[in-house]
Design brief:
682 residues; alpha+beta; Arc Repressor Mutant, subunit A; 27 helices; 6-stranded mixed β-sheet; WYL_dom; Helicase XPB/Ssl2 N-terminal domain-containing protein; XPB/Ssl2_N; Alpha-Beta Plaits
Amino acid sequence: MDTWEKVKELSSKQIENTLKVWGVDITTPREKVIDSLKMAMENDNNLESVFNSLSLKEKEFLGILLMAGGVKKQQDAQNIFIEKYSFWTFEEVIKTLETNLLVLEGMDGVIKTYIVNPTLKDRLINTFKKIPEEITLDNLQVRKDKNLLISDLIIFLSFVAKEELKLTAKKEISKKDQERLIEKLHIKNESRFQFIESLALDFGLIKISGDQYILTDKINEILPITDEDLIRLFFKYIFFGLESIEGFKRKEIFISRVNELNIRITLDAIKKIEVGKNIYIKSFIKKLQNMLFDEKDENRWIYFDDKFFEKVISDYLLWLGIVDGGFKDGKMVSFSLTEFGKELLTSERKVSKEPTIYLDKSKKMEQKKILFMTPNFEISVLSEEIDKIALFDLNRFADIEKADIVSLYTITSETIMKGIESGFSLDRIISFLKKYSSNDIPQNVIYQLRDWASKYGKVRAFKGIFIVVNDMPLFLEINKRLQNYIEQSIEPNIIMIKEENIPKVREILEKNGIFIQIHIEGYDEKKESFLEKSSENIDLKSEIKSIKEGYLTGLKKEDTEYFFREEGYERSMDIRPNITRDLIEASKRKKSVLLSYFDLDDKVSRTSRINPLGVVVAEKRYLVGYDTAEKCIKALRIDVISDISIENNEFIRPDNFTVKNWWKKYGRDYSDTKKKDIAISK
């Protein structure tokens, strides 16, 4: 349909809306509407204004048409769009684009088409591909983050070790504790905090116990790993998932399944950049998007989220030390690839006969003196020099006051008691300070530490009712301070209190520098380890080994009787991950499923009962199963399934059936023709 013929068919209300969009006076007489719109459309500023007023969904559909040369069959355009959105959203988008005169309806014989307004097509492409004007990259503040991430993780874990992070009823760290911890980190923002918390949880370093996090024995595996290998491990986990545990493990707080489709091209583009060259983030992202546009890669293009990939660079890649950041007015505007980032992304590792994954304790290394102890109990620490094990130990008996290139810690009677209570004895504390300090430990510090520690164990609380004091002067002092809570005196050094008053008694005594050695059920002050067993069974050695071999896809060969992945689709996107997982589980358990899905041909929702036999990953993801109504084995695209219900009845799986063999036999036909025993959804 001609653009201006379309205008003639519009109602008065529709014309008013169209005039508003193009900035034309809505009181324009109807006979002058077309001339006024023609004039408005010739103005590039008006066109850019109309384009910028579109929603993301509207821009994406317009882009699909422009990639196809400006014309696309209704069915084909609709299929691409509703994979990401719904059919009803599609209709709303078309309505807006037609009202704005950007898209018109057409016919190709008897087939309905959508056509980009011919008078605007070329200029719309230029608008789509417009690269943000680059700002001057001189005089930027450069930030290097690689080592700081490890330090912040250790600081977080030390807070957990000292039981300083309380959880709310929703099992989230309280706002107050969160803010207090963020102030101690090198990078002080909530996103960084959530990033570190998720790493700690997902690697099983911490777990929930009652109203708080507690450390697990997994930390004993993490701490000896070299910093660079630990960063490599985090990188693989965030971007590709881990392969040493069943299934695909990674929280979507990092990379959602939708964005996986474009992760590889983003990382591939970054690794080709010259090390140290400053790149403007917004123009870099836009050029990637334009590359997909020029290649007419509709599937990747429609899922390319520019805001998300800006976050990938300015958060994840910066924090991991893969790039350095250029900051202006507190915002990261540019990046440069680091030597470490180049090595990691290209897997260009130096060949060695026996690559070291863990620190070699058999080799005597020169001990770095990385802290300075003052007489007023302050410790200055070189953050980039201290190793993880030393940093974790330091945080067990000292509180961090400031995280920086030179971090500041303080020691108090309370921090020393918490260290001792967690199994880090006074002798170990003094030995640590002497080992790492660049100066002699001031004598007043040594004396005070011994005095504080001497009070540990002199006061012991037994479950419920007794407090025993093995020091008479101290007993007299305590007796005076606890007068309101003493039920009665039993012996010259034993007093009885109510069980519910133990927390209050402990609080009063600790405020006065007196610390109780607790003897209650579930607590043993003599234990060397305060760590719980981790619930995560991650094989860290094999994960790091696979990275050193240059294997970063994070996916094992998963060809089984229930699962098959065609070569070349290792990174194919799964926009229904929960449904995929449930279908594989139902296949293994031989349980029938009731599926609700959208029929792309008839535009209606349908329900089918299927005996699932497995999942195939090819250009799309498919369920292969036996349709109990049609009495045949067929395949159904998983991305059209909206709901799944696993039933109790168990089916009999065909003998020696594998989805790989079935797909090898019928897969090629499946993508080309519609056969009786194959369900085609296009």
